[in-house]
Amino acid sequence: MRLHSIFRKSSRAGRPPRPGQKAVNRLAVFCFLAPSMAGVATFYCIPFLDVLRRSVADTLGQTFVGLANCRAVLQNGAFRLAAKNTARFLATCIPLLLLCSLLLALLVHAAGPRGKPYQTTFLLPMAIPVASIVLLWRVLFASHGLCNRVLTSLGATPVDFMGTGAAFWVLIATYLWKNSGYDMVLWLAGLGRIPQQQYEAAAVDGAGTWQVFWHITWPGLRPAFCLAALLSLINSFKVFREAYLVAGQYPHESIYLLQHLFNNWFLSLELGRMSAGATLMVVAGLGLAGGAWLVQCCAKYGARKAQTRGIRRQKAERQGENAPQK
Q1: By CB neighbour count within 10 A (0-12 exposed, 13-18 middle, 19+ buried), where does 34 fall?
Q2: 45-97 residue pLDDT tens
Q3: Domain range 78-273, CATH architecture
Q4: Residue-range domain boundaries for the chain
Q5: pLDDT in tens, 315-326
Q6: CA 91 to CA 194: how far, in whole Å?
Q7: C-alpha–C-alpha distance, residues 171 and 246, integer Å
Q8: Alpha helices in the chain (DSSP H)
């Protein structure tokens, strides 16, 4: 009886759906998505709408003040410093992380099966708790830490790593050390999707290493690049935990980020400024996303146009070869 029902279902597989089947499928999809959509609406969308409301209201959220909070935030020196440091941190660490992780992925991929142990090794920093990383910071970069002892033994002048501009580069190094293995796995997944036949054809044609990378490897890694860049941007905002636990609420000005500012505003209950600052961050993020989308669309349009020109050129060459000679 069960086999008979299976055969009946398989025989109906090629038939068009019944009139009410599409409505049933849509209802089933909505039922599956309803719990997730309710959670997103409850914990993200509704609070964000309240943030938008408070950005144009006073501290109590009762009186409409217009753009006064936004003007106060933009004129605040701490906000300008935090925004500049955050932009500098993102502009420095994300390209470095993508480049370092790509180089690691290419080396591990070229090693073949011998590179498998290195994948686990590079992923170990992701499993280390934040408290352990903070302890490592204090052991290495304190005024009497290991790094300064090495410098003193070499006859050099000790460096106050966490009290000078060197704190910024310590933060960069920590971010790269912790996230390089994760991005390396994303690059390796993209490398695994590139057909091996393309490399074999390039070797037969005598293509060089740079030509193979630019014309075969990099085009196949573009989807992985977008995913790695997005996740790197998200993970970059998590580095605040290490900086906060090591240096407190008011660290050196080189690592005073927007997260420090928002945390201090929250402790002083300046909800209007905090909401206005969050709104400005969202607007800036949407602007960057829109600019990236526009650049991507222009790149696709240029690639299609170049492809069309190439096809037309090939057709013209074929017509010239087939034309009768006088």
Answers
A1: exposed
A2: 888 888 888 888 887 778 888 888 888 888 988 899 998 998 999 899 999 99
A3: Orthogonal Bundle (1.10)
A4: 28-66, 78-273
A5: 777 776 665 555
A6: 29
A7: 11
A8: 2-11, 21-40, 46-55, 68-74, 77-111, 116-127, 130-141, 146-153, 166-192, 196-205, 209-212, 218-236, 240-247, 258-267, 271-322
